[in-house]
Design goal:
Elements lengths: L7 H51 L7 E5 L3 E8 L2 E8 L2 E9 L5
Antiparallel strand pairs: 1-2, 2-3, 3-4
């Protein structure tokens, strides 16, 4: 008697192996999406911190502590540190970026 095709057990094993591969690929794609979203959020935070640092540096007086809400980031806070200042981008309880920038030249 000759045998043609695959048995039901062979087909089931192939489907299980295929499912394991597909589930792994979907998991990797979800992880990549989260990483991309986090990178975009940090990029927006860097731009916000640069903007605040530039505006503080451009003022003719020493910066005082403050905070500003920033869409897509959360908030940006700054505090004077002698002739420099520290600018921090915060989203919820997460600190996204901290920068210590020099103050205005000659200040």
């Amino acid at each position: 008697m000759s045998r043609r095709g695959f048995t039901m057990v062979e087909v089931l094993i192939a489907l299980v192996l295929l499912e394991i591969g597909v589930v792994g690929a979907v998991g990797i794609m979800a992880l990549a999406g989260r990483i991309l979203s986090d990178a975009e959020r940090v990029e927006r935070a860097v731009a916000a911190v640069e903007g605040v640092a530039d505006s503080l540096r451009a003022t003719h007086r020493s910066p005082v502590a403050g905070r500003r809400s920033v869409a897509g980031v959360g908030r940006v806070e700054w505090v004077p540190l002698g002739t420099a200042f520290q600018v921090v981008a915060v989203a919820g309880a997460d600190t996204l970026i901290t920068v210590v920038a020099p103050g205005r030249p000659g200040s």
